[in-house]
Amino acid sequence: MVVLSAEQVRSWDRFTIEKQPIASIDLMEKAAMACVQWMETNRIVNQQQFYIFCGKGNNGGDGLAIARLLQKFSRPVDVFIFETGQLGSPDFQQNLHRLHTLPVTIHFLQENAPLPDIPESVLVIDALLGTGLNRPVDGRMAALISHINQYPNAVISIDLPSGLFADQSSLPHPCIHASITLSFQCFKTALLVAENASYFGIPVILDIGLDQRFLTSCTPLYEMTDGALAKAILQPRPAFSHKGKFGHALLLAGSPGKMGAAVLAAKACLRSGAGLLTSLVPEQEQLIFPTAIPESMSILYDSRKPEELLSSTAVFKTIGIGPGLGQESQSRDWLRHLLTHFRNPMVLDADALNMLAADVRLLEGIPPFSILTPHPKEFDRLNGSCRNDFERLKAATRMAIQHQVIVVLKGHRTFIAMPGGRAWFNTSGNAGMAKGGSGDVLTGMLTGLLARGYAPEQAALLGVYMHGLAGEIASRKLGKESVLASDIIDSIGPAFLELESTN
Predict the structure, then answer these.
(1) pLDDT tens for residues 289-299?
(2) Residues with Cβ < 8 Å from 88, sequence gap 6 or more?
(3) Contact status, residue 233 vs residue 20, Cβ threshold 8 Å
(4) H/E stretch holding 14
(5) Residue 408 contacts residue 373 (beta carbons within 8 Å)
(6) Cis check: omega of the bond before 345, within 30 degrees of 0
(7) pLDDT at 46 over 90
């Protein structure tokens, strides 16, 4: 799956029209049919009445075609055309002509006319503006969008909620608050960022048969992880092997009062396939690991310097640093020591990132292709404040290239930026994972996959996807409200099994 810019989507339409060949009006018909078929499948056509708000561009043409196709369900349809004083696009005009012969009530929203009341029995379809939007809405259009938003009615937006930019932030401009967005062929960035969640509602991507050959001729804006990609990365565990073949990981995590984070990361590391794990543990917490996770070895540290306790890191395949670590001077000493003496890719999270933010010179010491896993606030501390999610995506991409690291920007659609400039949105996971400790589990999983022998890019893509899949499996069993971070760990094994069994 790919994420394309608005211009790339328009080019894909033109490519399809030229290569198949197909008339633009017929491509519009296919889009409208896909929308109506989806509404029929989901029993939305059983609504009492539809109000369809149309602009005069091709998005409005989609709305007019939907209005005509809804006639076979014998439901009343009112069409409201936003009057601009212009004729509109040719395909809009043709669909308007087709509609005139049917029992559809058409209203033209003139400049000074009152805006319509929307009865509570009505389902609203928003076809005012699509991906072609190139400036913020204002004036009468802004007033209409605000008018629709003041009603509690469910709204289905076609292509994109009106007022929403496809490739840049729309804040603080007015946008339709859709319940569902029916978009076509591929995701647009606007449908993947948290700041737009109240606008697009539930996004649904409909296949309208655009010519797939186009994708070989363009570089996608972003890509998307899915089960097929994760399964392609997955490596079998050779039968004639031993624990030493699957890597020895070192974990620096936890501090007095925060050892739970270390335990979660350690368990997730071993559940993800690492052969051996050693955990650096504060001396005063020495009983935690033998009790909670006896499979992990421990190095007890105290006030002595790191080099006195760990003179060599050569035995370790990778290191995970950060969960529950704290930012005391002792933690900073250990971070500097490991960054100085270890050159394999490592995983940095939580307090490790906060310490990097406090001394950005340490960024230069991170081994190439290490994996950084900030949530948005941690990223802003590290990078500098971003005004919106779109700026943050670009900043994460720049950071990955500049420092030759992998940036895993955590969220519902976790964003994974690679050192070579490519970036992915993750598709697995759900809101049940929004609990303390979930990020610690991800750190452990990524550390385990690196120890296991996956290349850093593979570990990042597979680890993030598997983390989300484990969260989904836990939610199926327990419900989203009740999932704990430890439940995600317990679901790592089932996630591997599910991925291995998929076709």
Answers:
(1) 889 999 999 99
(2) 55, 56, 57, 60, 61, 96
(3) no
(4) helix 6-19
(5) yes
(6) no
(7) no
How large is the average pLDDT for residues 1-26? Answer: 95
User: Rg for the chain (alpha carbons), in Å?
Assistant: 26
Q: Are 61 and 49 in contact (CB under 8 A)?
A: no
pLDDT tens readout for residues 236-282: 999 999 999 999 999 999 999 999 999 999 999 999 999 999 999 99
Q: How far apart are the first and last CA of the chain?
A: 17
**170: Cβ–Cβ under 8 A, 6 or more apart, which residues?**
136, 163, 164, 190, 196, 199
Tokens of 27: 């491509």
How far apart, in whole angstroms, are the C-alpha atoms of residue 187 and residue 69? 25
Query: DSSP letter string over 219-282?
Result: --SEEE--HHHHHHH-----SS--GGGG-EEEEE---TT-HHHHHHHHHHHHHTT-SEEEEEEE
Q: Rounded to whole angstroms, what are the CA distances from 294 to 41, 279, 297, 316, 337?
A: 52, 11, 7, 19, 27
What whole-number distance in Å separates Cα of residue 126 and Cα of residue 129? 8
Task: Let me know: does 36 contact 71? Beta carbons within 8 Å.
Answer: no
> Would you say 96 and 79 are in contact if contact means Cβ atoms under 8 Å apart?
no
Residue 463, SS3?
A: helix
DSSP state of 363: G
pLDDT averaged over every residue in the chain? 95
